[in-house]
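Milestone 3.1: sequence recovery, worked example.
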């Protein structure tokens, strides 16, 4: 069953939900298409199980990145995440599927996918806000930390779209243009807090 899931993940990441056929998954796994139904009720069932698995794996990787960098400065941790995300996207079907689902869930399964995506993003936002408060990047202002975490996720979203649509060069161009402005805003918030 894990082999089926892993093959399906690669297919869904590359071709999307609509472009993936159960026949192609079964063929790569080395079984007949009807045999898939011994493990999954339908294509939708397989897809949703794959998406849950992908978000679980990618969540561990993302939170692992921030845990591994906890002793680095806030600016470098946040800025270097863009480089980490680019490498992750280029090398991992899981990251590709997660990004695709954040922006383009299949219309017929949008509610079910958003029930997976939204808690993931909310958890990431809470972790970032805690990190910003803990590292004193924004002093003790919880509202400022919450807003900065949300703004950071918005910046990641806005740049990550380029990875999906255009590629790494345009992605890096957006990050290069947006990062200094974001960080200047963070410094302004910190200065406001210390006054």
């Amino acid at each position: 069953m894990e082999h089926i899931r892993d093959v399906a993940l690669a297919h869904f990441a590359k071709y999307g939900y609509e472009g993936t056929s159960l026949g192609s998954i079964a063929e790569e796994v080395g079984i007949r298409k009807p045999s898939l139904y011994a493990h999954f009720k339908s294509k939708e069932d397989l897809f949703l199980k794959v998406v849950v698995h992908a978000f679980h794996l990618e969540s561990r990787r993302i939170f692992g990145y921030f845990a591994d960098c906890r002793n680095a400065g806030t600016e470098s941790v946040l800025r270097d995440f863009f480089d980490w995300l680019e490498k992750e996207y280029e090398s991992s079907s899981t990251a590709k599927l997660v990004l695709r689902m954040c922006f383009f869930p299949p219309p017929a399964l949008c509610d079910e996918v958003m029930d997976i995506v939204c808690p993931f993003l909310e958890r990431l936002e809470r972790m970032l806000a805690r990190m910003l408060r803990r590292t004193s990047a924004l002093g003790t202002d919880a509202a400022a930390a919450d807003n900065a975490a949300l703004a950071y996720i918005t910046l990641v979203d806005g740049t990550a779209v380029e990875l999906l649509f255009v590629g790494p060069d345009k992605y890096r161009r957006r990050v290069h243009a947006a990062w200094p402005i974001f960080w200047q805003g963070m410094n302004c918030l910190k200065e406001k807090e210390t006054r």
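The CA atoms of residues 23 and 33 lie 5 Å apart. The chain has a mean pLDDT of 91.
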